[in-house]
Amino acid sequence: MWKSPDDECVHAPSGYHVLMSRQLTIRGIPEEVASRLTRLSEEFFVTITRKVPHPLDPAAAESLLRELSTWTVFAPETRDVLAAIALHRKAGIAFWDAMILHSATELGCDVVWSEDLNAGQVYGGVTVRSPFEPAR
User: Fold this and answer.
1) Do 82 and 66 share a structural domain?
2) What band does 131 get if pLDDT is binned at 50, 70 and 90?
3) pLDDT digits over 59-103, tens only?
4) Residue 113 belongs to some domain of the structure
5) Is 10 exposed, middle or buried (0-12, 13-18, 19+ CB in 10 A)?
6) Angle, CA of 27, 111 and 39, to the nearest 5°
7) Which among 110, 61, 101 is positioned nearest to 83, based on CA atoms?
8) Is 117 part of a structural domain of the chain?
9) Which phi and psi (to 5°) does residue 128 adopt?
10) Radius of gyration of the chain (CA)
11) What's the domain count of the chain?
12) Sign of the CA dihedral 11, 16, 22, 24?
């Protein structure tokens, strides 16, 4: 889960945001977490330049990664997993969806962009929007 400078959250399983592993470890992020986030940036680059219907050129993909590297990364702890389990049980939603929504709440987001949740649903003040819905 990543929070943009505009206070909107993005759930992106294929990795729409990451900082390089070295930058993360310098900032105090554990090496294991930093390594996973770095792998996401690599997957993002390959996906956005090769595997999508309208791939970006490498320079545009690099520029996008630079912009996204300024976003806040949420790294859940055990207490967050337990809170997501509680939401999963209370709301009757999938655990991973509950984790997404809990992460968005912890980041202070009003909107979470996700293709995995139902657009228009509101959970604890967080509104789900689909990246595929028409622009408003």
Assistant:
1) no
2) confident
3) 988 988 887 777 777 878 899 999 999 999 999 999 988 988 998
4) yes
5) buried
6) 40
7) 101
8) yes
9) -90, 130
10) 15
11) 2
12) negative
Alpha-carbon span 1 to 73, nearest angstrom: 7
Domain that holds residue 47: 18-70
Task: Enter the tokens of residue 74.
Answer: 């949420």
Q: Are residues 58 and 96 in the same domain?
A: no
Average pLDDT over residues 37-46: 69
Residue of 49 and 18 predicted with greater confidence: 49
Tell me: do 22 and 45 sit in the same domain: yes
Q: Which residue carries 């049980």 as its tokens?
A: 89
Contact 132, 113 (CB under 8 A): no
Name the band, by pLDDT with cuts 50, 70 and 90, for residue 136.
Answer: low
- 65 to each of 40, 43, 56, how far by Cα in Å? 11, 11, 12
Whether 8 maps to a domain, the answer reads: no
